[in-house]
Design brief:
The protein has 226 residues and is α/β, with parallel strands linked by helices. It is built from six helices and 14 strands. The model has no long low-confidence stretch (mean pLDDT 97). This is UPF0173 metal-dependent hydrolase FRY74_05130.
Length: 226
């Protein structure tokens, strides 16, 4: 699988000939000014919740690419009202087999409201299972015990966890979460975008290393094979 980080909590994964784009927030992000949003490809856009810093570029990218929007029922319906009718609604505990693999929508402890104040449904995360590997994107979340179930559903090759603290888990809780989900390779997101979530990167990497886990902090715009 090929993973590209676009800043904040936005990243894409290419698997089985399809590009999965998660939580696109690029054009308003000062740290991602060098990213050309019009060059980003997507076959699917997976949205964890309705906050502006996770959906800002959904409409632009979806209209250009025709990508299918995958999220909870309320978010898919909200975008449907904007004329984006290629959507697949989900809710907690549900899964669906797409042409690239299987998606399971799971719980996140957070809040969710759309930029216009509309109800954003339940915030969530995604477990992606494919014949090329499996991964978990937690979305914006606090540490919660249901993460232990994630480690039982699938053997994970990697997981994408928020680490910025204040609005989500911080480093210490993310280390615990990695234990809960039984995953030793973690990609950190939702940090350093603005003042509330700035972190000490060296300290973060060290704390994961002390627990025999690898924390990857990918440069914005960089692609890795994973």
């Amino acid at each position: 699988m090929e993973l590209t980080f676009y800043g904040h909590a936005c990243f894409s994964v290419k698997v089985n000939g399809k590009t999965l784009l998660f939580d696109p927030f690029i054009t308003p992000n000062e740290k991602a000014k060098h990213i050309d949003v019009n060059s980003i490809q997507a076959d699917y856009i997976l949205i964890s919740h309705g906050h502006e810093d996770h959906i800002a570029d959904v409409e632009t990218i979806a209209k250009r690419t025709g990508a299918k929007i995958v999220s909870n029922f309320e978010i898919v319906s909200w975008f449907n009202g904007k004329g984006l009718e290629n959507g697949h609604p989900m809710n907690f505990g549900g899964s669906w087999n797409f042409d690239f693999g299987k998606v399971k929508y799971v719980k996140a402890d957070h809040s969710s409201v759309m930029p216009d104040g509309a109800y954003g449904g339940n915030p969530g995360g995604f477990i992606i299972s494919t014949d090329k590997g499996n991964f978990y994107y937690a979305g914006d979340t606090a540490l919660h015990l249901d993460m232990k179930l994630t480690g039982e559903y699938q053997k994970l090759d990697f997981a994408v966890l928020p680490i910025g603290d204040n609005f989500t888990m911080g480093i210490d809780d993310a280390v615990i979460a990695a234990d809960f989900i039984k995953c030793d390779k973690i990609i950190g997101v939702h940090y350093d975008t603005f003042g509330y979530i700035e972190i000490n990167k060296e300290e973060a990497i060290q704390k994961f290393s002390e627990k025999n886990k690898e924390l990857l902090l990918i440069e914005i715009g960089k692609t890795i094979n994973i």
